[in-house]
Design goal:
This protein has one domain: RelE-like (YaeB-like fold), CATH 3.30.2310. Helix content is 30%, strand content 34%. It contains two helices and five strands; from the N terminus they run βααββββ. A five-stranded mixed β-sheet has the order 1-5-4-3-2. A hairpin with a 7-residue loop joins β2 and β3. The mean pLDDT is 94.
Length: 107
């Protein structure tokens, strides 16, 4: 899966501890595989329950995933976008925020 990052997500990631960064990156690997399946099946694939992907109720078009549930509290928000690859627009994920529940104040 192709992806982009926002300035907010870059800053958020830098604030994570090394352990939190490892947890997030491990989850992103699983998430990328799930995104590839979702795109391949035209949106018909479900998300693995371990990722807890769901829409952010207060922000249409933005989704959240959980990268750590038992501790530390790890959430990330993202949205679908498209990027140009070899002259063709392809689906991509734009990471918006990474952290704990506080990210939902400005997802």
């Amino acid at each position: 899966m192709r992806w982009q990052v926002t300035a907010s997500s870059k800053a958020d990631c830098k604030r994570l501890s090394p352990r939190e960064q490892r947890l997030f990156r491990a989850t992103v690997e699983k998430f990328n595989e799930a995104c590839d399946r979702w795109v391949e099946l035209g949106g018909g694939a479900g998300w693995p329950s371990s990722l807890r992907v769901k829409p952010v109720g207060s922000a249409p078009g933005i989704f959240e995933l959980t990268w750590s549930f038992p501790g530390p509290d790890g959430r990330a928000t993202w949205e679908w976008t498209a990027v140009e690859v070899e002259g063709e627009r392809v689906p991509a994920v734009r990471w918006r925020r990474i952290g704990g529940h506080a990210i939902f104040k400005s997802p």
